[in-house]
Amino acid sequence: MKTLINILLFSCLLTNSTFPQFYADSTISDYVIEFMKIADEKIKNMDDFKNTDEGLNDDELEHVAWLYYKCHNENPSVFYNYIFEENKKWNERSIDKNKTLEELKPQTKIVGLGKKIAAKYGVSFLEVSNTPALIRAKFIKMIPSSFDTIRVISTSMRLDFIFLIEDVLKADKFFTIGDTLKIVGNIGGSENPRPHLDINISYLIPVQPRIIKSDFKGWDNYNGELMIKYLHNSVGVWEMGSYKVFPIIDEKITNCEYFGISDTSWTDFKKYFKEKYLIFN
User: Fold this and answer.
1) What pLDDT is stored for residue 188 in this prediction?
2) What are the beta bridge partners of residue 146?
3) What's the rounded Cα separation, in Å, for the pair 25 and 119?
4) Share of the chain above pLDDT 70, in %
5) Which residues contact 263 (CB under 8 A, 6 or more apart)?
6) What angle, 0 to 180 degrees and rounded to 10, lies between the N-to-C axes of helices 76-97 and 106-121?
7) CA–CA distance, 252 with 264 (Å, rounded to integer)
8) What is the pLDDT of residues 198-229, one digit of tens each?
9) Per-position DSSP letters for 161-199, written without gaps between them
């Protein structure tokens, strides 16, 4: 009977809760414009892209790292859409000229600056910086939702992963403890691996806006859906990577060597994480 009561109470919780999301202000912020201006100036060709040792002194690199953090965390959905639109313009110019442009694609320039940041601060620091949210949440259930027919190359089954937010390590202006969190996932071969999650176990999960590619020319606007952020452990953007989630059992976080720390208590991990990864917060 007690188990039944708990189930009923939790069902009410899910019914009454709202699913939080990254709210979007359509304004392109000054720090985005400044960051892209620096990217245009410092990453002009593949030599600049590959070279992580030249082009920025320590103070300039710290400022670029701060801008990079701001772009990915203050209003990430707008930043993503802005870059997608800039990439689309580059593609259209390339098609018009019927050749690959000598000018690098905007996304490539961002990766080039990211390589310089990673050379000083580390790859995991870079990836945490471009992950808009890291949330501790208990996994509740998985719901087969629909078939994802938008993706042309790999039609796959859509799944909704339902969590209860227990703590917010990064992005507390977007997410609130006690809210229900819905993460959209797809299962369709190697391109859409399924994260392994156990019901009623807590996890630290990296979260980003889900923006769907609707065709080969453009991108849809952010519609409020969320996805688990790939952590490649690499500065590249061409690897598929894999889902990394970090189980928290008996208040001890595990599988966290990615962050440069051994399995430890959640309290100690939070302190370590804030000191190492949130220096630009």
Assistant:
1) 54
2) 158
3) 32
4) 73
5) 252, 253, 254, 255, 256
6) 130
7) 5
8) 999 999 999 988 766 554 444 445 566 888 88
9) EEEEEEEEEE-TTT--TT-EEEEEEEEBTBTSPPPP--T
The DSSP letter of residue 214 is -
Q: Is 107 exposed, middle or buried (0-12, 13-18, 19+ CB in 10 A)?
A: middle
Is residue 4 one of the residues assigned to a domain? Answer: no
Q: Into how many domains does the chain fold?
A: 2
Tokens representing residue 64 in the block: 């670029």
Amino acid in position 40: D
Return phi, psi of residue 209, to 5°.
Answer: -60, 145
Residue 205 zone, left/alpha/beta (φ > 0; ψ -120 to 50; rest): beta
Cα distance between the two ends of the chain: 46
137 in the same domain as 259 = yes
C-beta of residue 182 within 8 angstroms of C-beta of residue 19: yes
Query: What domain range includes position 60?
Result: 30-129
pTM: 0.82
Number of H helices and E strands in the chain, helices first, is: 8, 8
Residue 177 C-alpha from the chain's centroid: 19
**Last residue within a domain, chosen from 129, 150, 183:** 129
